[in-house]
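Suppose a colleague, Dr. K., hands you the sequence of a protein chain of 397 amino acids and asks what its three-dimensional shape might be. Before reaching for any lab equipment, you can write down a predicted structure in token form. Begin with the sequence itself:
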Amino acid sequence: MKIKLLLSVVCCSMVLAGTAQNNTRVQPDRMMLTWSANPATTQSVSWRTTGAGTKIVAQIVEEESSPELEKAAKTISGVALPWRRENGIDDYYGQVTFSDLKPGTVYTYRVGDGTQWSAWNQFRTADLTGDFSFIYLGDAQNDLRSRWSRTIRRSFQQEPNARFIVHAGDLINRSNTDSEWEEWYEGAGFIHQMIPAVPTPGNHEYRRDSLEQLVLDPHWKVQFNLPKNGPEGLQEAVYYMDYQDLRVISLNSQMIMLDSVAAATQERWLDETLASSTKKWNIVVMHHPVYSTAKNRDNTILRERFRPIFEKYGVDLVLQGHDHTYARGTAGKKKPVYLLSVAGPKMYTSDSDRWMEKSGSNVQLYQVIRITDKKLYYSSYQLNGKLFDSFELSKVK
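The predicted structure, expressed as tokens, is then:
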């Protein structure tokens, strides 16, 4: 009996050791929809795979409710991006962009290596005109699997037809920590396989290297295939996306706060990007708030150098995070409306009422923004679905 038991333990150990050594992930995971080009005619997708093989393919077909998907599907080749986790394990991330799609159309797709495939998933291309909604989430950062997950899942439950989800920075807590990204993906479940993400980085996506240079988490580039229309050297996080009659502009506020050259570069680029916008609605997404909810925080450079540009071009909303509270206000101006919110469980105290028309502390929230031809409707919700704050903007153009 002892010999049999010993053999069982040894065999089990050998199996576990072999699994750890090979680390072969059969199915693709960490699937993520983003846009790198026109949302009406393209869709980008990225995912993680493990092993020596680097064949990256995806299949896509217009959704017609038939189970015979493989027969009609078109196969697209993508690129494999090598990736080494902090524990030395080698992975690959695949990226594919579907193009020449029909506007306002539901497609179904899957990704893999030609042999091992993900499940089939759906996405919808942007219409050319018409009403739409999207979700805005503040900092996730901590307890991603256990507590932040409630926020993103409740937002999806309420707004399942949202066209995209804005993440206003600090998606994770410690830069380049793969286990935290693992929790982030698990917390969101299948949501980003169907609804594209529009992310901007926060301070927690950054670290300093051996030369004390600011370095963006290397996960960012392989996970998020974003438009390359930002300034050179900052394109991974500074970009704009046009969705129907809305322009969403992502600024890298961490680099603005800590790098004078990057700040000046973004300042010029923002002016040019807003000057060239022909969209009825213009929204800026950035992590650090122009106006803080804490007396001991004061982001002067944002207020002195970027606020005048927002006001010059009539930016409608500035969506922010960082302060782990809720706030809304116009700072005495007609535009823009400054908003900051928190989706995760880490909370700060709101002790400044200098500019806020609505504030809140110790409350996890999600926001739904709906855009019509002449109005923008904004609603912030608690996780029980109760309305926390709302307003609307009108515009005739």
